[in-house]
């Protein structure tokens, strides 16, 4: 679909064509029924217009068949729409494997994006064409919504919890980014651009950016700054669970439940540590809500995710000059491999 | 074809409103009206109960801990007070239905006394919470972990019991009106609808408390 | 509304001239006078809300936010929404036409609780004053949806005052609904069984169910919101441990059924109009009646379709989506039945029928675009864009307001005893239809292109469509002013109306125009089916005078 047609935004993602297809179907069905009703109304009105004040039409007994027909047929069409829309939504909410991780923070009235290896952008996000991108997002203040019309993607960005969105750009270009949930004075100013680039150009862009250290580096700094390592350590002095290799693993709670240590779990453990107390530990951890920004929390999450992972799986291009070491937790002696 | 002209005749019972055909119709209308109103009250309190359920299932330990700061003894006494007040209210209705004016007034007054007792005990409880720094807001202070969730518990506690108390106060006003009307001889076996309707309202307010008490006061208390 | 009408030569005074003086209006228990009190109030609110709309559309003519500041713009769209929804759309048809007609249509002398009815109006006015006070003292900029934590913690406007105003106004709605339910259950004339009731009554009954069950949830939600803002409680603010999505659930649990409060009464009006102006029975009476109740019931289970992208679980979303498709079906059934009613009828094109055609066409479009929103994958793209704005304006303005105006014109002779000028009225109806489509159709396109709602300034490429929309809005504004003038004019200078100027069935046409305070000299006994146009001639009495219609049907089994 071309951008010459002024009625539809560009199709610039893998999802866009699918969403537009459903839209066309709905337009077709709507146009059909609207025209049908309009034509019938006009036809009946003209054909049966009153010709004399004293005319008395014969009663028309209703028709059970018709009632059933015009109940069942709309119902059937609706169910097609439902299944189509629901399966499309499923696809839109499940990022594929191997997606590039981007962390985003929305705050009144700007967007901050963090690439894993350190580039941070404000109100602009560079992504490569042809690779899925997964955004993990939080808000510093009120509810915002991450909306890119050309990608047909939208997800609310909430305070107090993480939300995720994903897309795969299909053509290079600059695409509008809008905040789509009213958030105060400069709601209509909370806009920006998604810059989709040719993959090679993207690598160049990544490498050339002023990388002030990766996201995980920043998280490590925070980890030390807030002395998390005094309790979260792999030895017998630990008062909190060991974080090495924790991400993605199942965790057994004191309540008997088992949960998965995903981003939301990590975030909750920082801001509401006693909400999911881990089996075998005391509720000693204080809350860091208000002490660490949403951005900082995302950095910590990136750091914890990187703990205990062997170097081969890291996906980012090393910042120029710096080696890309396998991450070791801050407490172990340098050079020692993680257990 | 038409029923005899009703509008022109003197309309009968002094309590019969002009737009009703008969006392029976009027009473049925009042009754249905009160029941519909009580349904709206269920939906009204229901929203608050929903908020409570949501947060209790999110923070079970914190809520249990906060609940232990509530005075179960006073709460239980209040429960008993309200149940007895429902009894006296029912007796008042019965007295009205059997035409006993003094009995009606007596039982209505008893209900009012019990209702007032409930409110006094509630005020005492609120006072204790205030002294203990458990009033949500800038001066909230909670010993132990889970302070934020405890503050949430107390927010819901005060919102729900406060709303309930407000309904009790309105109920007392309604009862006072009934006493006044009864004293003026307005009720009889043929007409006692207001007593019955306000009785329904009173029982409803009682039932709301029957739900509030275990949900708020008795979390995690066994035996 | 205390204008003194010209006394007519009748034996029985009508409700307008039965008693004079401001007190006789402000302390009335007559449902007809209360309806007029509401008519005056909702009209004031309508033009106030409309004024805000004019300013919004004026600002949106240019991409830059250059007419007003952002803070002001945010207050404009908030107050437009709050006033139009709570103070016009929700009360309009039930409180004006419902109050006037429900007792008449069922052969009763008044509603079950006349004093409660008057109290309802005072509560409405009190809530309105409170809310307007917030406009003057700080304004309100949260959007009519009050999402947290913006409304609890970040907004610097008069949220508490406005919240209290809306809380108070809600009781007006609850009491009206309660009154209707009891009246319809208990005060029907002898012989008037449920399936002999006019469909206007069925739809008001269904609406009343929603008013009574849904509004209390709004009340507690607003109360908790106000308490949170005042006392920093933390129920909805995540910084204090609360959940902003819980607010959305509680808010939409009322606010979705609320849209059915706004449209069901209009559907009831359309059923009356389409039968009267086709001189035919409705095609499938029971289906339309059941559809009304079905919409009311199902409407309580779909609120989550406002929250597909808000963080709600995908599975919950799917349940809400499928139920949203289900609730669309009874509306479709109604549209088909109305259309089929014209078949082999005797169709005339007076103003009420013009509004009926407008309603059926525009409601069909609005309702069909609802299916776009129920489709989850598509809703992701159009949620919170101008597509949504267009969708609900098609239903609320193209639907509900056209239904309201059609009903006002249809029953105007009964209410005022005067005829309105037909030529001018038809002209206004056509202007409204044109202006409406020009205003809102471009917004569907804008929305799909990606223009978000509640935007003060927008990218240049959206300007052409915005200019079209604003041009339409100016036509719409003029269109609404015209009936104001000629209806007021007609009260003094209009032709006297007969008891049954349209030759319609229904008990309300068997009393004089305007009716006496007691409605009926004798309580009617009903032995005929509704819309019995084919049974017997229903005479139209021409000229003045208030004589009863003689269109009684012979007794039928």
What does this structure look like?
The complex is a heterotrimer of chains A (339), B (223) and C (557). Chain A is α+β, with helices and mostly antiparallel strands and 339 residues long. Helices cover 32% and strands 19% of the residues of chain A. Chain A has two domains: 9-46 and 95-212, Immunoglobulin-like (Sandwich); 215-315, Cytochrome Bc1 Complex, Chain D, domain 2. Chain A contains six helices and twelve strands. A five-stranded mixed beta sheet of chain A has the order 3-2-1-5-8, with helices on one face. In chain A, strands 4-10-9-6-7 form a five-stranded mixed beta sheet. Chain A has a two-stranded antiparallel sheet with strand order 11-12. In chain A, helix 1 runs antiparallel to helix 2 and helix 5 (263-271) packs across helix 6. The radius of gyration of chain A is 27 Å and the shape is elongated. The two termini of chain A are 53 Å apart. Chain B is an all-alpha fold. Chain B is 73% helix and 0% strand. Residues 1-9 of chain B have low confidence and may be disordered. In chain C, helix 4 (92-106) runs parallel beside helix 7 (159-186), helix 5 (114-136) runs antiparallel to helix 7 and helix 11 packs antiparallel against helix 12. Chains in contact: A-B, A-C, B-C.
So what's the overall shape of chain B? elongated
Instruction: Please work out how many helical segments of chain B DSSP would assign.
Output: 6
State the helicity of chain A in percent bands: 25-40%
Order of helices and strands of chain B: HHHHHH
Largest interface: A-C, 88 and 90 residues
Structural class of chain A: alpha+beta
Task: Bin the strand percentage of chain A.
Answer: 15-25%
What is the number of domains of chain A? 2
- Termini separation of chain B: 71 Å
Q: Please give the number of β-strands of chain A.
A: 12
Q: Which architecture name of the largest domain in chain A does CATH use?
A: Sandwich
Give unreliable regions of chain A as ranges: 1-5, 310-339
Order of helices and strands of chain A: HHEEEEEEEEEEHHEEHH
> Structural class of chain B, please?
mainly alpha
* Helicity level of chain B: over 70%
Give the helices and strands, then pairings.
The complex is a heterotrimer of chains A (339), B (223) and C (557).
Chain A: H1 14-47, H2 64-93, E1 100-107, E2 110-115, E3 120-122, E4 124-128, E5 132-139, E6 144-148, E7 153-157, E8 163-168, E9 173-179, E10 192-197, H3 199-208, H4 215-225, E11 250-252, E12 258-260, H5 263-271, H6 294-306
Parallel strand pairs in A: 1-5, 4-10
Antiparallel strand pairs in A: 1-2, 2-3, 5-8, 6-7, 6-9, 9-10, 11-12
Helix pairs in contact in A: 1-2, 4-6, 5-6
Chain B: H1 23-58, H2 60-67, H3 72-97, H4 101-131, H5 147-183, H6 193-217
Helix pairs in contact in B: 1-5, 1-6, 2-5, 3-4, 3-6, 4-5, 5-6
Chain C: H1 22-26, H2 31-59, H3 70-89, H4 92-106, H5 114-136, H6 150-154, H7 159-186, H8 199-231, H9 244-276, H10 285-298, H11 314-341, H12 351-374, H13 376-382, H14 386-416, H15 422-449, H16 463-493
